[in-house]
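User: Mind token order:
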Amino acid sequence: MSITFFWIFSVIAVISALSVILTRNPIYSVLSLIVCFFCIAGHYLLMGAPFLSAVHIIVYAGAIMVLFLFVIMLMNLKDVPEFVSQWWHYILAGVAVSALVFGVSCQLFQSYGPRVIGDMSLKALSHALFTTYAVPFELSAILFLSAVIGVVYLGKTE
């Protein structure tokens, strides 16, 4: 039964991720990204990490997406300018696609042995977050705060 849910979540996540990059309306792109985040939270549930799933929904689908919607509405993006492709865009796209194909092929042909995931308890997760990953956690908070301040400044000058 879990393999069925895995494939359902995976297909919906891929479709919504494609919708994020192919939709011209920025609001619809953010809503598609929320659907993708919920599917990722479903994957966390299938892996046996319900706390991580709940935190993922609260932090990403809740706080970060509200921040994205606020930024988009504050910048008043009604008309998105047409993208003019140049020759170096094709080179960058080719490099990105080849890196993706290389990464997927490395994962497909990797030998799978017994893996130890480690302790998935709340105590171990909180200990790792506040000791090992405290600096990246705080730096990401400062990055989000500076992005909001920049958007408010740009929105005020218009």
